[in-house]
């Protein structure tokens, strides 16, 4: 049921604080400063010997894989590759024996993701699923895995499954980190930060009314750019995908610094750029990218954390989300982008829960 919401997508956006809490329930081990996963079906020795990880999936799940890559490389120091499942299944890449393959999927029924897992498993690699739907084909095909516990996702555009996937990957990074070099103390801090997530996501929902006004302003645009860096580069891709799939407006997500290698040619007074610029290592550099857009008359929407006069000057609209450590920020920063896509699509009269040409699970290749 819709529980008083106008659409499933909106309901599922609002369910995110609870979904994230459910993804973490019973999985944070304070005693050992690590995460606990019941269904990996691999011994600590087998997991300790993993020296390479492949994360594969499609669409939004592929975006959460990108967030996972940053997390696992930073905290577990394991080299990670992110592969489109549709490419991996036919590409026949050399894979080392110590490689663990994760299939990331909301539905657990995506044909390409299933085929990529089955193919890598056939070659003798260990495969795990990060999956929402219990008992799905992919969950059955993998050696083990982690369920998201996000509850049913009905809207075709994935929202709560995405943030739950990112949260699950953050817990996996902690887990693999603690099997290796990550200290007890660092593990404790990491857990403390994970616990900040539900409230931070809850608070980020309060931008809804403001985002609706921004959507009214830009509903007739024919192209949007989404720009972010580091942990928020995948957020830019995800924001662009949400907008294009439900509002049918062309949108591109880019790492902000890549802008000057091409996409900046698209900037004009009718093309809004959405900058995801929360804080962190490349903060000043993204602000410099904003200046370049501003100099060409491009409207700017900024998603950021704290008040910053430079951003307030440059941006036409500033959406503030709560500050949280950089590596968890994508889970918070994506929320206004989900809402922006929702409101723009609604204003344009689109069927937000059932966009044209799309199916909830893509069971054909
Ligand atoms: C986008 C969207 C799709 C799915 C993709 C993979 O909002 O929903 O891009 O993410 O089709 O689906 P799952 O995660 O079920 O494998």
TrEMBL record:
Domain of life, source organism: Bacteria
UniProt entry tagged with the keyword Cytoplasm: yes
Annotated GO biological process: amino sugar biosynthetic process; carbohydrate metabolic process; fructose 6-phosphate metabolic process; protein N-linked glycosylation; UDP-N-acetylglucosamine metabolic process
One cellular component term from this protein's GO annotations in UniProt: cytosol
Location relative to the cell: Cytoplasm
Catalytic reactions of this protein: D-fructose 6-phosphate + L-glutamine = D-glucosamine 6-phosphate + L-glutamate
Catalytic EC class: transferase
GO MF, one example: glutamine-fructose-6-phosphate transaminase (isomerizing) activity
Catalytic residue list: 360 (for fru-6p isomerization activity)
Function as written in the Swiss-Prot or TrEMBL entry: Catalyzes the first step in hexosamine metabolism, converting fructose-6P into glucosamine-6P using glutamine as a nitrogen source.
Annotated protein name in UniProt: Glutamine--fructose-6-phosphate aminotransferase [isomerizing]
Source organism (scientific name): Roseimaritima ulvae
Taxonomy of the source species: Bacteria, Pseudomonadati, Planctomycetota, Planctomycetia, Pirellulales
């Amino acid at each position: 049921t819709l529980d008083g919401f106008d659409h499933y997508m909106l309901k599922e956006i609002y369910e995110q604080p609870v979904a994230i809490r459910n993804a973490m329930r019973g999985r944070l081990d304070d005693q050992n400063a690590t995460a606990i996963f019941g269904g990996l079906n691999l011994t600590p020795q087998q997991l300790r010997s993993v020296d390479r990880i492949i994360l594969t999936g499609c669409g939004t799940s592929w975006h959460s894989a990108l967030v996972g890559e940053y997390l696992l490389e930073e905290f577990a120091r394991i080299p990670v590759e992110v592969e489109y499942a549709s490419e991996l299944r036919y590409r026949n890449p050399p894979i080392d024996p110590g490689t663990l393959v994760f299939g990331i999927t909301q539905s657990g029924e995506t044909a390409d993701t299933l085929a990529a897992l089955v193919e890598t498993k056939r070659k003798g690699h260990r495969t795990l699923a990060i999956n929402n739907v219990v008992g799905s084909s992919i969950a059955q095909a993998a050696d083990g895995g982690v369920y998201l516990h996000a509850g049913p996702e009905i809207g075709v555009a994935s929202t709560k499954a995405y943030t739950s996937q990112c949260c699950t990957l953050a817990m996996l990074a902690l887990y693999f980190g603690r099997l290796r070099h990550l200290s007890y103390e660092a593990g404790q801090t990491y857990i403390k930060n994970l616990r900040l997530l539900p409230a931070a996501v809850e608070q980020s929902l309060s931008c809804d009314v403001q985002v609706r006004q921004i959507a009214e302003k830009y509903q007739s645009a024919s192209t949007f750019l989404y720009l972010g860096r580091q942990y928020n580069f995948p957020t830019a891709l995800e924001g662009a995908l949400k907008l294009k799939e439900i509002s049918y407006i062309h949108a591109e997500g880019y790492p902000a610094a890549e802008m000057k290698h091409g996409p900046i040619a698209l900037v004009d007074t009718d093309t809004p750029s959405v900058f995801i610029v929360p804080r962190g290592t490349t903060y000043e550099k993204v602000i410099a990218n904003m200046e370049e857009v501003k100099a060409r008359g491009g409207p700017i929407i900024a998603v950021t954390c704290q008040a910053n006069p430079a951003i307030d000057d440059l941006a036409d609209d500033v959406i503030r989300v709560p500050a949280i450590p950089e590596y968890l920020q994508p889970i918070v920063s994506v929320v206004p982008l989900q809402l922006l896509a929702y409101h723009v699509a609604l204003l344009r009269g689109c069927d937000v829960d059932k966009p044209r040409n799309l199916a909830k699970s893509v069971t054909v290749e």
